[in-house]
Amino acid sequence: MTESRPSASTAQSDAAARRAAWSAYWQAGALHSCVGSWSGNYGGAIAAFWSRSFAALANGARVLDLATGNGPLPQLLLQQRPDDAALRIDAVDAAALAPAWYRADAQPRLRFHQGVAMEALPFADGSFDLVTSQYGFEYADRAPALAELLRVLAPRGGVALVMHHAGSVLVEVARSELRHQARLLADDGLLAAAAAVVPWFALARAGGNPGADPAARRARAAYNAAQQALSTAIAGEHAPDLLVDVRDAVHRLVAATGADPAPTLAALADWRAGLGNAALRSRELVACALHPGDVADLRDAIVTARGGGVTVAELGQEEGVLGWSLESA
Ligand SMILES: C[S@@+](CC[C@H](N)C(=O)[O-])C[C@H]1O[C@@H](n2cnc3c(N)ncnc32)[C@H](O)[C@@H]1O
């Protein structure tokens, strides 16, 4: 059986859903997309790569950061070059952003452009001395995004990218989170069972006697079974943090249900929406991660278009492979 291609309207609604999921993530205030791995800005091998790349910039350079999120890379660059008053950074992302650390009047060297796709950049040809992206470029429709990247790059400009690697520890974590998210969101999962039992808890709080109703007893039994199944899964998991967090949060919410079930049901719906968005981001990460052939194709396309050398390497540290780095000479 051949795989059918998504229709144009499916692709558009997928793109809109991805934009919405990322917008919700950035509005919640994270600086970057890997807060589980680096609590502040990026550190370790990733920070070292960027520090080396930024050190080669001349004063007053123009830098473009693609798929910037809430601007972790611009932040690193501004911190590394406090005296480079003429430095100009443009930072674009398809999503709606909310970089809490940024004030336009306090950081005049940086401009964010939200709602801007890498495949259609609003900049003149040859504008930038360096184009960067951290876990971003690989999310694009790569051929048109590369054409745009090369169009806006100055003739002697450079490219520096860190991209997801199909064999990285981050992809491994995303795969296991996908399993956890699917378990929690399943029709017989904890969130559905909790939403079904809450109205009966509320009835009891209001002085009713739900125990007399077989439907209430079934909902209670299903909720207990979902809690039990989750505890069993947690015991068998190497990194069950998400399952533990959701189990405990749902338990607290259900236990605090009052005579009106609406607030608890709304909080459960928020959890469901948040987990749905997180699952979408995990799926996207796994799907975008590059295999050796993908990154070789990207390198070859840049070399063909511009000549010169392009270096591709695995970026890793003690925990394992973190991604691919790609740098033009
Ligand atoms: C994994 S996040 C990385 C963000 C940031 N660079 C970081 O290191 O935290 C990927 C970002 O790519 C953005 N994105 C995905 N496809 C895009 C596109 N075609 N054009 C612009 N941004 C895109 C998403 O909105 C998201 O903010």
TrEMBL record:
CDD domains: AdoMet_MTases (cd02440). InterPro entries: Methyltransf_25, SAM-dependent_MTases_sf. SUPFAM superfamilies: S-adenosyl-L-methionine-dependent methyltransferases (SSF53335). Residues 63-157 form the Methyltransferase domain. It holds the Pfam family Methyltransf_25. It comes from the Bacteria. This is Methyltransferase domain-containing protein. It comes from Arenimonas composti TR7-09 = DSM 18010.
